[in-house]
Every structure is written in structure tokens, then in C-alpha cells.
Design goal:
By secondary structure, this protein is of the alpha+beta class. Among the domains are: 2-56 and 82-154, Rossmann fold; 164-214 and 470-586, Orthogonal Bundle (Topoisomerase I, domain 2), CATH 1.10.460; 219-275 and 403-464, Topoisomerase I, domain 3 (Distorted Sandwich), CATH 2.70.20.10; 282-400, Topoisomerase I, domain 4. Helix content is 34%, strand content 24%. It has a six-stranded mixed sheet with strand order 2-3-4-1-7-8, sandwiched between helices. The longest helix has 28 residues, at 156-183. The two termini are 60 Å apart. 36% of the residues are buried. The structure holds one DNA strand.
Length: 778
Amino acid sequence: MRRLIICEKSHAARRIALILSDGSYKRRSIAGTPVMDFNRNSDSYTILGLRGHVIELDYPKEYNDWEGTPPKKLVSIEPVKSVNPSATKIMRALREAASKSDEIIIATDYDREGELIGVEAIEHLETDVPLRRARFSALTKAEIEQAFSNLADVDLRLATAAETRQYIDLAWGASLTRFMSLASGQRGSDFLSVGRVQTPTLALVVARERAIAEFTPTPYWLVTADLRKDSVSFSASHAHGRFEAREEAHAAAVKARRQKKANVKDVEEKDAQEYPPPPFSTTIFLAEVTKRGLSAATAMKVAEDLYTDGYISYPRTDNTVYPMSLSLRNILEKLRKSDFAKEAEEVLSQEKIRPSRGRTSTTDHPPIHPVEGATKSELKGARWTVYELIARRFLATLAPVCEVRRTKMALDIGDEPFEAEGYKIVSPGWRKYYPYYRVNETILPVSSVGDSAEALKIQSAEKKTKPPARYSQGTLIQEMEKHGLGTKSTRHEALQKLIDRRFLKGQRIEPTESGVAMVSALENHARLHDEYKITDAKMTAHLEMEMDLIARGEREQPDVLEESQAMLEDIIDVLERNRKEIGDDIRKALRKQRSLGKCPKCDTGELVEIRTKGGDSFAGCSSYPECRNTYPLPRGLLVLPGDATCEVCSAPKIKTVAKGQSPVVLCIDPKCSDAKKQRYIGKCPECGGDITTIQSKKGKRFAGCTNYPDCKKIFPLPQRGKIVPTDEICDECKAPIIKVWQQKNRAPWVLCINMDCPKKEKKGGKTKGDAEGKRKSE
DNA sequence: GCAAGGTC
């Protein structure tokens, strides 16, 4: 018999061919698509890898005209299926291979989408060749052999469930996207999108922002003591913890201050173990890698490249438990030929390697791990950042526990009870290989009961409770996972969409004006019952339930679709009735979002950024042509509203941001003394003019003389950090001296801006800042 | 020019 096996992706096809043929398969190409042939138990096999979903769902072309199709009409239009353009060659190969087969075996991933990926490809062929299904939960020899000797039937109900999801996602997404875009006059590339995953994700951020706005800080007081014993300085805090009343805290502090001595009442030492972190699932990986400054979308792209190039395993996984079939020692051996040779050696030298494990165990793919050793010179930049993180995480998950010693000291100061806590790493274990978490060691002086310490200072300090923190890309993706929004493969894409379409902004993510307006409009108008609120993550949960019912045969697709369509039509009716209000609200939000501030000349218009054809941009008044007020804007920089007016000339302030630099807030009018002051660095050593910061076309900053072109003096500047002039000049070369703040809580770097200054030769390097800054553990 | 889900 001639059998054709189809897999979800080429990688899986190769792996299955290897297992079933014991390595004896032959490669061949059909219509430019690689396939593999082999013989097994008197049958001949051909195996081919698809490229995920090869069939696309969309509305017929005649409905592409947004203005000409009422959004509500879209709901009941039957979408058509077509071959994804990137898969035409694969489909040609599939058709040819199928025509020469007596049986087709679908061997796609064993999940709902996998079932549909196989079924849709075969349905498109309209072939009568009998169909079987191989179900395996891992690409291991045991699983694959077992699946192919127990071939099952295709589960059409499961595939239908996935197909229903497609129909519903398209109907809701397309009709609501069109409605919102048209109602607010956003056509072309500026359309406003709505979707089952992206909109509830946006709503999560809006909800967080509201919680932050509504938050009222509650004051509380902490009483702390600076102590010293045997020339070791340490601090203790009042055993009461937070005082809610100022008087109580003060009273405690005053009482304690009567004594200049702290008496040790109790010392408790405890050895504890800190366990290694769990292996990387996609979500955990993204949470960690985004802390290193990459966006989730960039990090995934880099990880996919590293996977394709054979450096790391498949990066899309929910699994946090290494499967038994994975040879951890083999991987460590590979790492011996990498920049982590020493580390791998150490981990290998353990008598027994006990990998850490997370809560989620799935069988589709192992946790993300390196599969090949690499060096920094081989990978470079972001590729190295990602590879290093994955390699180090892998080493950490196999490394010993971190042994720590915690000390608790109880003290009395003037009859007031205080506590001091010590924390010391005895043996770093996994922390040695995974140095990304900062830890704060606190050493207490060796003490026993009855000892005393000098009480240097007792203070009562007012603190305030803090509002919930904004999400980062990493924590938002974790939150999405918690709410069942999106999948391991799509969460970063949904997030990136919200950023690209300007619904979300910032490193600490906040919604834009239009983001808030979208959510408010949909919350107020696009709801019928609580379980069908498009802004609510519960909508996904509800859909999941319906899909399960279809898969179990307890509901039929037409029923579910009809119900969903009726609901959507009702929602669109409500939206249409409020069309003007919704449109006005969003338009207003967009205008505010784009505004750099009120025009100081006419006081009615808003200043908005306008790009010229040449690539330059300027700020112009929205009341043009009545008001022709304009200001040039710096090139190569992101220009944002400064949310303030200039104290000098009452024009709005703008915030300019260059990649990697701290933002600068300055008056929009470059001729205003405030703008000049913000850019001022010092006096020109050549002509006595002003040296100011200037941005190059590409956004790099440097310092140059304002007497240009008469004086062409320029100096390079550090690209990172906030620059503050000092009024001082270098005693050697007379160039201005500046301070550069490159990190919070670190002393600034003080330097003469002249890179060729003879003094630099003598001293060399930069002045090291104060490294004693407060460190927070993560 | 719309979604979300696969994969590259």
C-alpha cells in the first residue's frame, strides 16, 4: 500500500520520517516542496509537512468595500475558503502526492487546531482517498510508533469546533472593526480594530489604569533604627510594622530615642533553600526576556530564528516540565562547546542531575532549551541576548539549590521592640548560572542574647501605600494567559497590534486616549448580557465552552453560529443607534491623543505633528488656514506632548524621545529661552558661543556650537542617560564639563565633553559611580 | 485596509 502522511510543519515531518524509517528515508522534492520517502512493513510512505493553516477564511471580494457594506450585513455573509498564498506550492505537492496514494494519514498536532489543519487541507483536495489519523502527544519514538500502529479516524467534530471559532472570530472582528472605524471616520491604514483577544487585552490595561487613577494613597509610618555593633552598621525596624497613626509612630520613636543602646533579646538563625526557577514556557520566557529590553514580538522573532538555525528548541510551548525522553546530559555536553563550557561542566559534575519543574506539563513540545552550543561572537546582539538567557535558564534548572542563611534578631531600644533581618547566600547554586535576579545580602553583626548595639539614629518616616503597578509587556502576556486570552503563539502578536495601532503605549504599558475611548464605547454600547461583553475576557471562556460542546457532539455548528450571529446583530443594532455619540467620543479622543498642546497663538486650535514629504516634520495648528502658526520639530526623534505649558512663553512643552536616551521635555518653540536652556551644555571653547545638544538625522545626539556655520565645533555625546550642564570647564582643554545620569540611584558620570582631551589619556576610562545605590531584589 | 490561529 502507498501511504501519504501529512504533518503540521516541516520540522515534525522530518522527525516522524526519521523515527518511522529508522533513519533510512530519502528526500525528494515535489513542486519545490521537500518530501521524504521510505518503506516500512511492506508499505511505501511519503511524508510531507504543511505550514500550519494552509486554508484562509475571508469574505468574498465584493464585500471588501467598507463604505458599501453595512457592518451588520457582514455578520450573516458566508466566508469563503482559499489557499493561503504562502502555501500554494505545498498544496500543489500535496495534491500530486495524494493522487498517488491509497491512504492518507493526518499526523498534525494533537489538538483542536491541528485537527482542522489536517482536515481543511484534505477537504480542499476533494479526494476520495481513505483518511486516517495518527494521534501522538510527543515526537518521541514510543509515541510515534504507538500512534502509527493504532491509527484512528479523523475527528470531524473536533475540526468543526475549530472552524466555528474561525467563523465567530472573523464575524465579530470584521464587523466591529468596520463599525468602529467607520463611525469615527478612521479609514485606510488608520482603522480601529476590535477582536476577541485584542479588545479584552486592551480592556485589562484600561481597567488597570482606572484602578491607578482611582487609587487613594493611605499614609502610614515606619519607625527604623540605624545601629552599629563591632563596627558593622545595620538597620532594624519597629516590630509593630506599619503604624497607621502618626502620633503612635512618633511616640514609639521618641521612646526609643531615650536609649542610645539596643539590647539583643533574641537571635534566630535559619538555613533555607531557594529552589531553581522552572524551565521556560513561552510565557515565562517572554516575561524574562522583556526585562532585558526586548519587546515580546522582537523576542519571539529572534527565538524563531534561533530555532530555525538550530540553536534552541521550538519556542512555542506551554510546557514547564522536561519530558523523560529529553537527554539533559546530551544538551549539557553540547554546551561544553559554547561560552558556557565551564558552567556546563560544573552542572554535569553533579552526582545526580535533578531538573526543576513548573506547574504546567504538556506533551506537545518540551520547555524551551538550547539544542546547540554557541558563542557570543557567533550570535551577537539580540540573538545572543536571547540565546544566553535560554542557555542560562537551562543551566539554572539543572543546578543545585541556592543555600541561604536567614537571621532574625529581636532588639529592645528604650523598651520598644525592633527587628533586624539578615540574609546571606551561603552557596549560590543555580543563582551562579542565572544572575538576572538581583539579590540583596544583608549582613548582621555576630550577636547573642544580652549583647548590645549602638543606636545611632531612630526615625519615624511617612510612607504611602502605592497604586497597582502598570503592566510591562511580560506581565501583560502573563495576565493574558491567566485569562485564557490568545495562545502561546499569538499573545505577543495581539499585544504588538495594540501598540502599533496606538491603543497602548509606553514601557510601563498604559492605554492611549483612543484606547480608553474604544473600551468605553464598547463597554457602554456593545453589550447585551454580561456573558457577551466583547471587552470581557469571559467571552473567550464562553466560546471555549461552546467549542467543547461541538467537539463532544452536544451542539451543532449551525446552532452555535446562529446564536452568535443573532447576538452580534443585536449588538450592532445598539451600536448603530449610538453611532454619532461613539464616533464623536473616539474622534475627540484621537484629536487629544495627537495634540501636542493648545496653539498659543489662536488659543482655539491644537498643535499637531505634520510630516513633510521630505521626511521632516513640524507642528502646525489644527485651525489652519485661519491660524498659520507653526514650529519646526527636531528630526530623528519621537515627539510626544510634554503635558505642560512653558513658564516663559506659555507655548506647550513637548517631550522628545530618542531610542535608548532619556526623554527631554522642552518648549515647542526652539527660539524660546526654555528650549535653549534645556539644550544648553556650556560655552564653546573656540568661539565663546553656546554649545547645545543636537540630534542627527538618525536620532543620535551630539553637541555643537550655535554659531554654526561660522563655528563648526562639535563634540560626541554619550547616547544614553540624562545630560546636565555643570557651568564648569575642563582645566586642561576648556571644553564644558557635563554630568550624565545613566542609571537611577547611581551617581552621575562627570566628564569633559572633549573626547580628545589630553587629560583623558592620563586618567583613562570613566569615573566609576557610587555603586552602593539601593538595590531591589526582583 | 477587518480576527485569530497555525507556521517561517
